[in-house]
Amino acid sequence: MREYQRKYLELLRTVAGIAEPSSGDLTPEEFTANVRKANIISRQAVVEGTELLRTGLFPVLDDILTASQEEVECLYEFAGQLMSGQYKQMDVALHCRIHEALVSYARHKGLRDMLIRELYLVGMSLYNMETMLSPNTMRLFSARMRMCFNESASYFDTEYDDIEDPETKGYIHRSMGNIALSYLDSSPESSEKKLKLIERSLSILNDPEVRAKTPSLPWDTYVYKSHQERTSLLAYLRTGRAGPKAFAQVLESAQIIEEHQQRAAKERNAPLNPRWRYAYMAARYHCGAMTLTDLLEGLYALSIAESEDDFGDDSMFSHVSAPAIFMAYTKALPDGRLTPRMLEQMRRMTERMTRWIVRAPSNAHNEQLQFYLRQFLYSYREEPGGVPFFEVVEDIFASRHPVSYMRMWISSRIVEKLVYWCAEDCPRELVGVLGMKNVSDVIFRRREIADYAMKAARLYDIGMVHFFHMEKSACRGQFEEEQTLMELHAGFGARLLGERASTKDFEDIAWGHHRQYDEKGGFPLDFSPRKSPVRPIIYLMTLAARLASATEETASRYSPVPEFDDLLRDIERGSGTKYAPFAVNLLRPEERRAELRDNMENWTREACLHMYRRVAKN
Predict the structure, then answer these.
(1) Most CB atoms within 10 A, among 38, 362, 371, 402?
(2) Contact 538, 532 (CB under 8 A)
(3) Which fold has domain 401-616?
């Protein structure tokens, strides 16, 4: 590899090692210092990494058709380090950029074997970017992914017998099996297409004549992976719209995986993999061989089976994913009603999950953990006597994404000030919020409005749970597709908040906190704050969030930390376009600016202290 490539990889490893806070035996002051140091190091890494790629990599990619064979081999080796395994993602978007360039190189040079391989690797990059959106059904990369896998797999029907390299044939079969990955949702149409694709792939993989052509390939591994993918259609079975053939095929695959896992566990004298143990139980339930009660008991047993001091992959599934699946399946109970035992099980699993997640070591590049966290939040059932959703969210953010935690905390303190100043200067703006009938209501109940705004501020960026590892791992400026992904966090957060009674009232705050006042910019474009019953709070929240980003601890890694006075001038220039004029006017008195300026440091320490307490309590 080139020197710039080695340096960039080292930056990635450095940032990953300091991504999450840990209390350990630290004092609150030491903890705060570590959090600040981590963000400074991350921001410096972005500057340094961007320069390394700007001078070393991007000129090569821009002129890839003239690259030497040695340069191409270095690029391939470098990209392999950026995404080593399906869920070990150091920089998946950069991995994609490099392999897209190598596709162009192979196509232009007429290098068939290389083209087959590179199409497969681009498809895998796109798949890993797509999974960041799960469990939402929105898809951005599926069509491109499908095209890559289809083109690579198409060589089976055209030039397969002319290919001599076994590895190239392996990429063809892997691409053929992975076409099914592009059908990620559980709709009947998508799921049936996926079943047919897997069925065809399996028929080819099990064909003795095909195997005989290249006996050195790991055929049984390919078959096993295909059965794993077919077992993922359990989500389709849960919809209640699958036909008998789908049930039979998924159960068959689950049975094959179960038998394989039994043999593997016996050979290594270890327990069964909990992820696939769940899959077998769920398949039996859907096919009528197990009751829902038994399935829930089995999931609970899986959830508490692993030690809270074990942070391996099996423990990750048991502590985070199994409780999420448990809660998802409780929706199939008659009227969705939980028994007292189920309520106690949910409470215990949630408490174990939060203790485990705040103690889990930094693992910024493991998208599987991030997926499980999203799965947990989307499936979470808030019940009387259980852990409030608000508490679960704050524990996850405190332990996994301190920048967002602090930004939301500081925003809550700023928006409190803004509400009080608004009630003092222009109370009419708040009439209608929370049922305020007139100015007198606003003045006498301003504490109620401030409390609402503060709690909303502590949750408004919850959608960032989709992009934890992407935002804090890459050591470079963001690509356009990454910016597009990040903009989705507002809608994702609104959905998470809107699905629970305790947070539904904050849904519009999540939707609108990046929308411009004049609605000519910002995102999402299909949301209008002007139509919201909490319109003025959205405008105040937009301003508060912008102000909260003006510290070393909360500013984006991708832009310099603004000077506070420069930020105030920028806000003034945005009055009537980016920001509501009444909100900007609240900041015009110098004494208020001074109050905010003086308090930012205190609020930053306060945020760190509360984050420390959340991490330390576990």
Answers:
(1) 402
(2) yes
(3) Hypothetical protein af1432 (1.10.3210)
